[in-house]
Write a structure and sequence with these properties.
Length: about 600
């Protein structure tokens, strides 16, 4: 039996009304207009209300001139960051740009306005291209076009041998890159980069030469030399391809001592593809030395030179070996005859004398270096015997005698300045006998500055305890130039390359054969004034030749020379000392 339970009747519910809700996002435009010469550049960004870029949206641009007349329209689309850029060439003037986004059912309308002034200014094109490319390595070239410091968005045409090979579109900042590797052939390749002219500006043209080498050889050598007034080894390297030496490549040498890297040297190959470096090796640096090098092309993998090895033997063995060599020479001379022995003895005396002179001069080298840097001499006053002299009649005055230390005679018509803490305190002129009197300081010290035509400026200290009569020795320009030369050369050779004549003997011989003359214009003097025009690689040999000619002319011509000649020679010596070069064979031999 089935029971049926009946409840209230459930009716059907009628449907509710439906609503459609549409939400529109907010869009805004960021706009900037720039004037680079006669190029009007426009860049901007379309973003939403949280600052995110709106991608692939259309932006309409309207350009108006100063009279608000529309002169151009353009349509651009935003990139993946919501950005856009555009440029155009217009006549000089002020222009306004309106940018607008029409909106959509999901985005609001957006607009912005900016303005810029265009002026007739030239475009500057900078090209950064590799000078040498190894094989088929990538060879990117970076381009930058600007006007008045602002990037120019334009096109750059690229020509090889007057044939167009590519065109590069520069971005809104005037930057672009092109790969030249597909257009390179073995050897030298000339490329022209051209910003084509417009009705409002001229063509801009830049040329670059790019060399491609497929087979590049790197060779090197190590040679023990005496360079830069120090003993060591000179490391040479040469880089060449199918056309010969490759210039302007960076070279890095790695020097190792007993397996440990002790230093790195850098250099650049010259026009012949050669580069040189110098490593000082002192006697205490005994052991195994090694050197290797890497050459870095502008484009391509580095090139290696495996290098060389050499041994520096212990220094204590050098003297016994030299002693045995001298003993062998003595025995040989005894065998071949007494005359040869006497010649050897004379030569040995010269060597010993020269060695002692070099040892004695080392102590004064720092003083000479300081004098060279100062540009004037600093001397000590010599005491003279006190005699009856009208100049020394006053108790508080000191008689100063200016003395030519080359010709050993008084310096006539010189001028002595007394300089104290407050400046020049006194200035007196010497007479025909080179004498004058100056005030003796009551306390402290003063400086005597002596100058005379044809002599180097000299200074000396004078204090309250100085004697009543003193001699201040001055150096003529020719002798000072000779001493400069000797200082530079003797540090390397250890010999006086000018013989054994004293300055007084040279002056006496000149006075017997020549009358007083005045310096005439000499070719070497003109070269002294123009040496800064020389290329760095040309300077060492050229300056040594000029310096040798200056010594010969000033010492042996009998002419008188102004102190300006000494200053110019001094600059040459400072430059040679800075370069640290060794005199070339023949440069000094002419002067002996």
């Amino acid at each position: 039996m089935m029971a049926v339970i009946c409840g209230p009747e459930i009716g059907r519910v009628s449907p509710a009304a439906a609503f459609e809700v549409r939400v529109r996002g907010h869009a805004s435009l960021e706009l900037e207009a720039t004037g680079a010469g006669t190029t009007l550049g426009v860049r901007g960004r379309l973003v939403d209300d949280v600052g995110a870029g709106l991608v692939q949206r259309r932006v309409d641009l309207v350009v108006r001139d100063e009279r608000l007349i529309e002169v151009e329209r353009a349509r651009v689309y935003t990139d993946f960051n919501g950005g856009f850029s555009w440029s155009t060439e217009r006549a000089p003037g002020v222009y306004s740009v309106e940018a607008g986004h029409a909106g959509s059912e999901h985005l609001s309308v957006a607009s912005a306005r900016a303005s810029a002034r265009l002026v007739p200014e030239e475009v500057e094109l900078r090209v950064q291209a590799p000078a040498f490319v190894l094989g088929g390595a990538p060879a990117p070239v970076e381009l930058q076009a600007s006007s008045g410091g602002i990037g120019v968005a334009t096109y750059v045409s690229v020509y090889r041998a007057r044939e167009a090979v590519a065109a590069v579109e520069l971005d809104a900042y005037g930057r672009g890159t092109i790969e030249l590797a597909p257009f390179l052939k073995q050897g030298d390749n000339r490329f022209d980069f051209v910003v084509e002219p417009s009705p409002y500006r001229d063509e801009v043209h830049q040329s670059r030469s790019v060399r491609r080498g497929d087979s590049v050889a790197v060779t090197g050598q190590v040679e023990q030399v005496f360079l830069r007034l120090q003993r060591g080894v000179e490391i040479g390297i040469e880089v060449s391809d199918e056309r010969g030496g490759v210039p302007d490549l960076r070279v890095v040498w790695e020097v190792r001592h007993d397996g440990e890297v002790v230093r790195e040297l850098e250099g650049m190959t010259d026009a012949a593809g050669r580069a040189r470096g110098f490593v000082e090796v002192a006697g205490a640096d005994e052991g195994r030395w090694e050197v290797s090098a890497e050459v870095f092309p502008d484009a391509g993998a580095p090139l290696s030179w495996p290098g060389e090895r050499w041994d520096v033997k212990p220094a204590p063995w050098e003297r016994p070996v030299r002693g045995l060599a001298v003993l062998a020479a003595v025995l040989a001379l005894l065998w071949f005859g007494r005359g040869a022995l006497l010649s050897f003895v004379r030569r040995a005396r010269q060597i010993i004398t020269g060695f002692r002179a070099r040892e004695a001069s080392r102590g004064g080298e720092e003083g000479f270096r300081a004098e060279l840097d100062r540009g004037h001499e600093q001397v000590c006053l010599d005491r003279l015997p006190e005699v009856s002299d009208a100049l020394a009649s006053e108790e508080r005055r000191v008689v100063v005698e200016l003395w030519d230390r080359w010709r050993e005679r008084p310096v006539a018509e010189g001028v002595v300045r007394v300089e104290g803490p407050e400046g020049v305190e006194e200035s007196v002129r010497g007479g025909p006998q080179g004498r004058c009197s100056v005030s003796r300081p009551s306390v402290g010290q003063v400086t005597l500055m002596a100058q005379a035509p044809g002599f180097v400026l000299a200074s000396a200290r004078l204090d309250a305890s100085s004697p009543a009569r003193v001699r201040l020795s001055m150096t003529p320009v020719p002798l000072k130039i000779r001493e400069l030369y000797r200082w530079l050369i003797q540090r390397a050779h250890g010999d006086d390359l000018w013989g054994t004549l004293t300055p007084a003997q040279i002056a006496g011989a000149l006075s017997r054969h020549m009358g007083p003359q005045h310096a005439a214009g000499q070719g070497w003097q003109q070269e002294l004034e123009r040496w800064r025009e020389l290329a760095p690689q040309e300077r060492p040999n050229a300056l040594l030749r000029v310096l040798t000619a200056a010594v010969e002319e000033t010492n042996f011509s009998g002419h008188h020379y102004d102190v300006e000649v000494w200053h110019r020679v001094r600059e040459v010596v400072l430059e040679l000392d800075r370069l640290g070069v060794e005199p070339v064979a023949g440069a000094v031999g002419q002067a002996e």
